[in-house]
Write a structure and sequence with these properties.
The complex is a heteropentamer.
Chain A (H helix, E strand, L loop, with lengths): L1 H21 L3 H21 L3 H25 L13 H25 L16 H9 L3 H22 L5
Helix pairs in contact in A: 1-2, 2-3
Chain B lengths: L4 H16 L7 H25 L8 E9 L4 E7 L1 H20 L8 H20 L3 H10 L1 H11 L4 H34 L6 H7 L12 H16 L8 H8 L2 H26 L1 H27 L4 H22 L2 H32 L10 H4 L1 H14 L6 H14 L3 H26 L16 H19 L2 H16 L1
Antiparallel strand pairs in B: 1-2
Helix pairs in contact in B: 1-2, 1-4, 2-3, 2-4, 3-4, 3-11, 3-14, 3-19, 3-20, 4-5, 4-6, 5-7, 6-7, 7-8, 7-9, 7-10, 9-11, 10-13, 11-13, 11-14, 12-13, 12-18, 13-14, 13-17, 13-18, 14-16, 14-17, 14-19, 14-20, 16-18, 17-18, 17-19
Chain E lengths: L5 H6 L1 H19 L7 H18 L4 E3 L4 E3 L1 H28 L4 H19 L3 H19 L6 H32 L4 H11 L4 H18 L7 H8 L2 H26 L1 H4 L1 H23 L4 H22 L1 H29 L15 H4 L1 H15 L5 H15 L3 H27 L13 H19 L2 H11 L5
The chains are: A mainly alpha, B mainly alpha, C mainly alpha, D mainly alpha, E mainly alpha.
């Protein structure tokens, strides 16, 4: 059963990822991305990472993509370029490279296939918020503090770039 | 000698250059006066080396050593032996001469000219006295910068091309030398487990570099790495083409230093490093060196013969003369080597003198084309006299310095490479040809060009510029033992291994 | 007391030279210059003769005075030292004498020059005396070489004395450069000597060589030939004689002193000095003889048709030098020196005479513009006449004794089949005889054209014709007298059965070092003075023969240039043999030949080296070419930075993919 | 749902999914011209990275390594999401600035600087 | 333990100081108009304090539960990073006033980026490395585009952003793979695993490749270099100076930590070959294209590509000597580049125009200080003694030769010969070309001149007496290799 859920989510993710990449209306792109993110959070859930599944939906779909939508509205970009339009050589090589990278990782996956994932012992409820929260406040305390700087910097920068000239 | 005489001689010019910095550049006269005084004092002081030098000691004297980069085994170690002392003194002598020669030059940026000259002097002396290969390399490269500016800033119309060519040629040679040095040091570490760049230390292991096993034998490669660097400086055919350009474009101040000292750095490097550090490879390369030397002698003379620009002619004559030096070094007998070292000094004096005179001529007429002159002897007899004098010294008239050097070089080489000596003889003939024909076209004949009607004759100052050179030319010609005996022991030791 | 400080002799002249240079720079009055110039040489002469006197009154054969080590490095050691032996004594004696006379003569001849010019002239002349004396007094090959080059330098300077006059400078350079060719031969000879004997001291090398003839025979050949190259250059022998005629561009006294009396004989001196080597090496000696004999005739033929009086004398000098080499070549070294001396007298006299003539016809040198000068300048005429007789070889005149002995010895060498080259020597003797005939002819031709007949120049000039001042005539007279009586120094007593009358022979005897084990060698026989394997009868026959030859020459000259229909005969002859006359008039096109065969190609090659090898191949193709290649590459590669950010991203992805694949 | 009673799918499947998404994202970045589209593709790439982390974390959680290791992976995802947010902020602001200046956000049009 | 120990906080005191200052600047600008003119001084003070703290404070080593290693290595890099920042800020003040963009954000972002770089240099944990990298990049995206009205500045920002974000996506993915391969985030342990395995398994290899690729982007190594010229040219000069130095220092250290940790020199011959190729390619391409550049900043960008090529050789050699060489090289490169860019800022007339070499004609005697400092720095970049650049190159080639990479050394020296070609062009344009009729209007700026002078003097003095730098580097590297 889990397997089917996963397969379905995966299929959905890939499908809408493709849509997000191919579609020529930015709104479509973003919405496709939203769906894809939902699919992803499903995957997270399937492999027992409830916390991630949650923030995936909240932060990504809830915050970031909304931001996108705002910007798209702001700049009211309607129809945008077709995938691979313009520089055909770039498109050609680009496709090859992308495929190559994907293939490469997939081959690795193939190499790893032999050893299968085992039963997830209920005891090790790895994915729940508690252990992650612990880790964040102990092992990764520094990173946790540090990310604030990152966000502040981002805000400062965004504000500077976004604001109209003061003088 | 613990009173650091050599260190002072070495660093005084640079220190003085720094002293000049704060003085405003509009006070040209101040700069000139200070520099001339300082350089004269420096020369006088450098004579302490001559006085305190023990001719019977083949080793290095006035050795000073200070730690520099101890972890890498690099130290500031300097000292002179019978070979380098002459070159050091030649350098310190030429400095006041060129400063005095540049006295009336109405050019801009006098301050920076003097500073460049002083820094250049330190660089050149350092090259001759360094006993640490890293130090040597540093000084070797340092000389590039001031010379680059001297040619490029105060030079002629094609000065930029010439200066860049000079810089790149020399650097092209020396970068490989750096790798050579590193390899020697690494090899020494392999052998002894000690990191050192000391000349005397490397002397113990460098000869062990294998020279057998095809062209890629380390010994041969390292030798080549050094040889190319020096060959460019000497210069040896076919690496010589920077020389005419540099000389023609450089102000006479630069040409004098260039011909007088810089070229010697190459020959000095050959004898000090290639010969002393890699004797086996040297033996293998000797035939090649001899051939190139002979080519240089004849080729330089031939090309000089057909020049239309006096300065270019003298420049090519340098190629020919340095060919003699290389022949002497390559032959490697006691006599020929001593002759070669003496010939370095001779060439410094006579060619330096020629460049000074050509420079004075240029100052009077702002041309160097042979065709623009003719019959000057009637207008400026004393100048003509000086010019003839130096000319004959440069074509090796017995009784003047040139002869002694050439005689020792050829006489010493005769037992080893008679054929080369015969070609050298050809070079002597051609030497007379190009110099005398030039003199004939410039000074003799009717005074056909009205522009030359009333040129001023040699001024007192100019005479004093030439005077020390003339004296030395005669001195070396009549009693060369003054200069031959100090180098005797050192060269004997050097040729021993 | 001069002996023991021989250096004084040249040093005095050097001092004179330096002082005069200074005076010239200071534009001092000519009188001072004269005093210094002539005075210094006078002093040197005095010193020279004093030394000679002391030398004669003391037992030692060779006085050697080492002063200091000049050059010493490795196996090369050369001392700065002088030596006085019979040979150098003779040379000193006549060099100083002739030199002094010519200095005197110059005072009058050069009085027209500017202050500076005058001083310069005397400075050079003194410098020349210094070098020449150094040359003859030096006790080793290298000191000799110093003088050797020194005289070359002075010759260069003095030929170019009238530097403003076109051609003078060129002639000077030519002289020096041609000499340089010889000098290099000399230098290499020195190197060989150093290599073989480890020394260049006469005392060492000759003694050693003479002691072991067989051992050093080969070396002797090499050294001998190389030295000969030097001598050929200095003494203007074939093929290097071309510079001497041009050298006449210099002032006439200079021609007299340097290019007739002294410098050019340095080659002969050197060959004689090295007689040991030549006697050890038949080949070398034969070469000397051939060069001499051929040159003697060759130059004489050119002399036949010259119209410039100085040119005539120049070629006659070359030819006379040829005689000297012939002499040396047949082993008559002493005779060679003897001829050097006599030749110095009469040729100097001739040149000074011609100088006086030129002086009179203010600068005119073409004999066709002269004639009948006897009336105007008797002294000059008579001295010139005497010298002409001497050079023509009329008995009892100086030239007769020396030249006749040379020819006799040549014949003897042939008859005695010297070194088995008898035939060749006979041939050379014939050349010598013919040359003698020609000599007599062209010298009298010159005499007649100049002094006899009627003046052919324009009347305006004729009025100025005058005898030269005392300072010029006195030297003329002295030299004239010397060229009459000078020969008696080598009076061939043996012709009259009295031996020992030949002073010079006796005096110079020690110069010919006996060869150790080869005492019985043919050379030895030849070199012994007096009887040279010929019977008295043959000797007298030869004498008459040569006299006859001379007389015939004179008569032909008389027929051609003094007969009522003067000049017609030679013209007819010329028309009959057009080619030969062209050949002679153009001096066999030797200069042109050298120009085309040697100088031209060298210049073309040099230009090729410069323009093609240096500028095109090395600079343009390699240096600038590589720079251009680099810049071109850069200009192409710069377009890899397309400016399109997606390309950049692509290259990043590509790089990562490649690296990942590679590291896999 | 409680993960205790389920049989887990192989983590390699998740990895495969991430690989596919990564490829798609790369493709988008390389082939789109519109800045926003490119940026969306970038987000896809980041998410695929997240999946990769998740996959491995899942693996380690299932007894192939310490639990701590498994947690680390998830923490990383957490931070990646945060960083993504930050990048989004900056990027979009930048796009706005660009758009203000040039009335377009087609990256191919920004090539004053080249060669 | 929910709160960090004092030791942890003390260890990152400099970072904290900078972070605080970064916020403070904004607050001051917002609420204290009177002080607004002195933001740069304020920032300078902060940087100074941080520098002082970094120098004086002890180096505890592993802190923050072993995510950071505040060791000699980190502190060496930090010091030069801080010096670079100090100089940048110093010259930024007048520059921003000149171009009318003196906003507090500039300093704030600059400081944030600095913190990022320092953290990156100190991190031994994939997570913190990644975060440091991002904190370094994100402000830089803005700083590149800081002249919002200048087309090239915006374009620079866009390009740096797109490529940067793309590269960091790869970095993350690579990290994921590394994490997957080794079940840890600590690069020391990762390295240990690799060393134990004695080879790179596919997972590690690909992960490493992706991370290295991301770092190569930061270092502008061929073929991840193409952004550099554009961004250098477009960015405001002080930013270019910062950009050309600080990220490279951090990236070099991470690369070094990885290479040494995994002992790649021994483990993977393919690594050696691959990196050698990249190094040589960077040197050749950088120098050859630099030769034909007419814009000074662009030229320096390409030369920077070449220089990272040299530095990469040292990274390849690794070991004590290689490590020392890397550090010395970074130190030298910092001073040379800061000096060069400061001098260029002095000699450039307008920001929105390309800084053509020809505009420097005859400035040599007209603007002595700027010209002289630029000359010194360029000679140093060319690797001519007695400047520090020579010492740096010397160390690199020495390390290479001693490890047997003689060929790399030869290629390296030949490349520095090539580079002399274009450095000399600038110098002769300065001194040997005549002043043009219409000479550029340059307003002198004392601070900028001071920066240039300090850097040039540093280059000269440290080049003449390199002992201290080399000692410091040698002892610093001991914390990584022993």
């Amino acid at each position: 059963m889990v397997t089917w859920v996963f397969l379905a989510a995966a299929a959905l993710a890939i499908l809408f990822a493709v849509v997000a990449v191919v579609a020529r209306n930015p709104i479509t792109n973003v919405l496709a991305l939203v769906v894809m993110f939902f699919a992803m959070s499903a995957v997270f859930a399937v492999i027992g990472m409830d916390f991630l599944a949650a923030i995936q939906v909240i932060v990504y779909s809830g915050a970031i993509l909304v931001l996108f939508l705002f910007v798209i509205m702001l700049l009211n970009v309607r129809r945008i370029d077709r995938l691979g339009s313009g520089r055909s050589f770039q498109a050609f090589i680009g496709t090859l490279v992308a495929a190559g990278i994907g293939a490469m990782v997939l081959v690795i996956v193939g190499l790893l296939l032999p050893e299968q994932g085992a039963v997830l012992p209920g005891a090790a409820a790895a994915g729940t918020a508690l252990p992650i929260g612990r880790a964040l406040l102990s092992t990764h305390l520094f990173a946790f503090e540090f990310i604030t700087l990152l966000l502040v910097a981002a805000i400062v920068g965004a504000v500077y770039l976004g604001k109209k000239d003061l003088r | 000698m613990s009173d650091h005489v050599l260190t002072i001689v070495l660093l005084a010019p640079a220190a003085f250059a720094i002293l000049l910095l704060p003085i405003p550049r509009v006070w040209k006269r101040v700069h000139r006066i200070l520099t001339i005084i300082a350089s004269s004092v420096m020369f006088a002081f450098s004579l302490k080396l001559w006085v305190g030098f023990d001719a019977n000691d083949p080793g290095f004297q006035f050795v000073d050593t200070f730690p520099w980069i101890p972890d890498l085994g690099i130290s500031f170690t300097i000292g002179i032996d019978g070979i380098s002392i002459l070159l050091v003194l030649l350098t310190t002598l030429l400095l006041p001469v060129v400063v005095l020669a540049a006295w009336r030059l109405n050019i801009e940026h006098i301050k920076s000219l003097h500073i460049s000259l002083l820094l250049l002097t330190t660089g050149m002396i350092g090259t001759f006295v360094a006993l640490d290969l890293f130090l040597f390399y540093v000084f070797w490269e340092i000389t590039l910068i001031p010379m680059y500016f001297i040619i490029g800033v105060w030079g002629g119309p094609r000065r930029i091309y010439a200066s860049v060519k000079f810089f790149l040629f020399t650097m092209a040679g020396s970068v490989l030398m750096l790798v050579g040095v590193l390899y020697l040091v690494w090899f020494h570490h392999q052998q002894t487990g000690i990191w050192t760049y000391g000349y005397l230390d490397l002397m113990t292991t460098a000869p062990l570099l294998p020279v057998t096993g095809g062209l890629l034998a380390p010994g041969l490669l390292v030798f080549a790495a050094f040889a190319i660097a020096f060959a460019v400086k000497v210069p040896i055919f076919p690496l010589h083409t920077w020389l005419p350009d540099a000389h023609v474009e450089a102000p006479s101040t630069g040409s004098v230093i260039l011909a007088g000292v810089l070229l010697k750095m190459g020959a000095y490097g050959f004898i000090r490093f290639n010969r002393a550090l890699l004797p086996d490879a040297w033996d293998l390369f000797t035939p090649l060196l001899v051939v190139l030397a002979v080519i240089g002698i004849i080729y330089g003379a031939l090309v000089a013969m057909v020049q239309v620009d006096v300065k270019k002619l003298v420049a090519y004559s340098s190629v020919s003369h340095m060919g003699f030096v290389m022949l002497g070094l390559a032959a490697g007998t006691q006599a020929s080597t001593q002759g070669a070292v003496l010939q370095m000094v001779n060439h410094g004096l006579s060619t330096g003198g020629l460049f000074l005179l050509v420079g004075m001529l240029y100052q009077r007429r702002y041309t160097r084309m042979i065709a623009d002159f003719g019959g000057l002897a009637g207008v400026i007899p004393i100048f003509t006299g000086c010019f003839l004098f130096v000319t004959f010294s440069s074509i090796g008239l017995p009784g003047l310095n040139g002869f002694v050097g050439e005689f020792l070089i050829l006489g010493g080489s005769w037992s080893v490479f008679p054929a080369a000596v015969v070609c050298g003889g050809l070079g002597i003939i051609l030497g007379a040809v190009y110099m005398l024909l030039m003199v004939q076209k410039v000074f003799w004949g009717p005074l056909d060009n009205p522009a030359n009607q009333n040129l001023p004759d040699l001024s007192i100052r100019e005479f004093f510029v030439m005077f020390p050179l003339l004296v030395l030319i005669v001195w070396i010609g009549v009693y060369p033992m003054t200069f031959l005996s100090p180098m005797e022991a050192a060269i004997r030791l050097l040729l021993a291994n | 007391m001069i002996l023991g400080s021989l250096w004084l002799i040249p040093a005095l002249c050097l001092a004179g030279a330096l002082v005069n240079l200074a005076l010239g720079a200071a534009r001092a009055p000519k009188s001072m210059v004269t005093v210094v110039g002539v005075g210094s040489v006078g002093a040197a002469t005095a010193a020279g003769y004093a030394a000679l006197w002391e030398y004669l009154n003391q037992p030692i054969g060779v006085v050697i005075e080492p002063y200091f080590t000049w050059i010493s490095a490795g196996r090369i050691t050369v001392d700065a030292s002088l030596q006085l032996d019979p040979l150098s004594a003779v040379m000193v004696a006549f060099v100083t004498l002739v030199g002094l006379l010519i200095h005197l003569y110059s005072v009058g001849y050069m009085h027209g020059e500017s202050h500076r010019g005058y001083a310069r002239y005397f400075a050079y002349l003194n410098l020349f005396m210094f070098s020449m004396l150094l040359l003859v007094l030096g006790s080793n090959l290298l000191v000799l070489f110093v003088g050797w080059e020194g005289v070359g330098l002075c010759s260069y300077l003095l030929i170019g004395y009238y530097y403003a006059k076109p051609g003078c400078a060129a002639a000077g350079s030519k002289a020096f450069i041609v000499n340089r060719i010889g000098d290099v031969g000399f230098l290499i000879a020195v190197f060989v000597t150093l290599g073989v004997f480890g020394s260049v001291e006469y005392s060492r090398i000759f003694a050693t060589a003479a002691a072991h003839p067989e051992q050093y025979a080969a070396a002797a050949t090499v050294i001998g030939l190389l030295l000969l190259v030097g001598a050929i250059g200095k003494s203007a022998q074939i093929p290097l004689f071309v510079w001497l005629p041009d050298a006449m561009a210099g002032p006439t006294p200079v021609s007299a002193l340097i290019h007739a009396a002294t410098m050019v004989t340095a080659g002969v001196y050197m060959v004689v000095r090295a007689n040991v080597f030549y006697r050890l090496s038949p080949t070398a000696m034969l070469t000397v003889a051939i060069v001499g004999g051929v040159t003697a005739l060759f130059a004489a033929t050119i002399g036949l048709v010259q119209n410039d009086i100085k040119k005539v004398l120049a070629y006659s000098t070359v030819s006379q030098l040829g005689y000297m080499f012939l002499a040396a070549g047949v082993g008559a070294f002493v005779t060679a020196i003897f001829h050097v001396v006599t030749h110095a007298f009469f040729k100097a006299c001739l040149f000074l005479g011609s100088g006086s003539v030129i002086h009179a016809c203010d600068g005119e040198q073409d004999m066709r513009e002269m004639g009948g000068l006897r009336r105007h300048m008797p002294t000059t005429y008579w001295t010139f006449f005497a010298a002409t007789l001497a050079i023509a070889g009329i008995p009892l005149f100086a030239g007769f004794f020396s030249k006749d002995e040379i020819l006799a010895r040549a014949f003897a060498a042939g008859a005695g089949d010297l070194n088995g080259f008898g035939r060749i020597y006979i041939a050379l003797w014939v050349l010598g005889m013919v040359a003698a005939l020609l000599t007599a002819f062209y010298m009298f031709r010159a005499l007649y054209l100049t002094f006899r007949g009627d003046y052919r120049g324009d009347a305006e000039k004729e009025r100025h014709l005058h005898e030269s001042p005392r300072t010029m005539t006195v030297p003329l007279i002295v030299l004239g007298v010397l060229s009459i009586i000078g020969g008696f120094a080598g009076f061939p007593g043996q012709l009259f059965g009295i031996s020992g009358l030949n002073l010079i022979d006796r005096f110079l005897e020690p110069v010919i070092v006996p060869l150790g084990s080869a005492a019985a060698h043919g050379v030895e026989a030849a070199s012994d003075h007096g009887t040279h394997g010929l019977t008295l009868g043959v000797e007298w026959l030869l004498v008459f023969l040569s006299v006859a030859v001379a007389v015939v020459g004179i008569l032909i000259a008389r027929r051609f240039y003094l007969a009522p229909d003067a000049f017609a005969a030679p013209r007819r002859l010329a028309e009959r043999l057009p080619f030969i006359s062209m050949l002679l008039l153009n001096k066999y096109w030797i200069d042109e030949l050298y120009g085309a065969m040697i100088i031209g190609p060298i210049y073309r090659f040099a230009t090729f080296c410069w323009r093609v090898v240096d500028e095109l191949i090395i600079d343009t193709i390699f240096i600038n070419g590589s720079a251009f290649a680099v810049e071109l590459t850069g200009d192409i590669l710069r377009f890899t930075t397309t400016g399109n950010v997606r390309n950049y991203a692509l290259s990043v992805a590509l790089a990562i993919l490649a690296l990942a694949m590679w590291l896999w | 749902m409680n993960a205790a009673d389920v049989v887990a799918i192989p983590y390699t499947w998740v990895l495969a999914l991430s690989a596919a998404l990564f490829a798609i994202g790369t493709l988008g970045v390389l082939l789109r011209r519109n800045a926003i589209a490119i940026f969306l593709s970038l987000e896809i790439m980041l998410n695929s990275a997240n999946l990769a982390f998740a996959a491995f974390a899942f693996r380690f959680a299932t007894g192939h390594a310490t639990a701590a290791a498994a947690i680390d992976g998830q923490v990383f995802i957490f931070f990646v999401i945060a960083v993504a947010a930050a990048e989004a902020a900056i990027g979009l602001a930048l796009f706005i600035a660009l758009y203000r200046h040039k009335e377009t956000i087609d990256v191919d049009r920004f090539n004053i600087l080249r060669w | 333990m929910l709160t960090p120990s004092p030791a942890d906080l003390l260890a990152v005191a400099p970072e904290i100081i900078l972070a605080v200052a970064a916020g403070l600047v904004l607050i001051v600008e917002a609420f204290l108009p009177s002080v607004r003119k002195h933001l740069s001084e304020l920032t300078l003070a902060a940087v100074g304090c941080a520098l002082w703290a970094r120098i004086t404070l002890p180096l505890p080593g592993a802190v923050w539960s072993d995510t950071l290693h505040i060791d000699g290595l980190a502190s060496f890099v930090d010091i030069y990073i801080l010096v670079a920042v100090f100089l940048t800020v110093w010259m930024a003040g007048p520059f921003l006033r000149r171009v009318g963009a003196d906003h507090g954000e500039f300093y704030s972002l600059l400081l944030f980026a600095t913190v990022g770089a320092m953290v990156m240099a100190a991190s031994v944990n994939l997570l913190t490395i990644f975060l440091g990298l991002e904190l370094l990049s994100i402000p830089l995206y803005v700083l590149n585009a800081f002249l919002r009205r200048t087309a090239i500045s915006l374009e620079a920002g866009l390009k740096y952003f797109v490529v940067g974000a793309f590269a960091s996506a790869f970095v993350v993915y690579g990290m994921a793979l590394l994490y997957g391969a080794t079940a840890t985030m600590n690069i020391v342990e990762i390295g240990q695993r690799v060393v134990d395995a004695g080879a790179l398994n596919p997972l590690t290899a690909v992960g490493l490749a992706m991370v290295v690729g991301g770092l190569a982007f930061k270092l502008a190594l061929v073929p991840c270099h193409a952004w550099a010229p554009d961004v250098y040219q477009g960015s405001p000069t002080p930013v270019t100076a910062f950009l050309s130095v600080v990220p490279k220092g951090a990236a070099l250290i991470v690369l070094l930590r990885l290479a040494v940790g995994m002992d790649l020199l021994q483990v993977s011959s393919r690594w050696v070959i691959g990196i050698s190729i990249v190094a040589v390619a960077s040197q050749v391409l950088g120098n050859v294209i630099a030769i034909v550049q007419r814009d000074v900043k662009r030229m320096l960008a390409y030369s920077g590509i070449a220089h990272m090529g040299y530095a990469l050789v040292a990274v390849l050699v690794a070991g004590p000597e290689g490590g020392t060489a890397v550090l010395v090289y970074f130190a030298a490169y910092t001073l040379m580049n800061m000096g060069a860019f400061a001098a260029i800022a002095l000699l450039s007339e307008r920001e929105d125009r390309p800084h053509l070499i020809d505009d420097l004609k005859g400035q040599g005697y007209h603007r002595p200080v700027a010209a002289l400092t630029l000359t010194a720095c360029l000679f140093s970049l060319a690797g001519v003694p007695p400047f520090l650049g020579f010492t740096a190159k010397f160390m690199v080639f020495r390390a290479a030769v001693n490890e047997g990479f003689v060929l790399l050394a030869v290629i390296g020296v030949l490349n520095s010969l090539l580079s002399a070609f274009y450095y000399l062009r600038v110098i002769y344009t300065l001194y040997m070309e005549p002043l043009p009729e219409r000479e550029p209007r340059l307003e002198p700026s004392l601070p900028t001149a001071a920066v240039a002078t300090v850097a040039a003097l540093g280059v000269l003095v440290l080049g003449t007496f390199p002992g201290p730098v080399i000692d410091a580097a040698a002892s610093a590297i001991l914390s990584l290799v022993r």
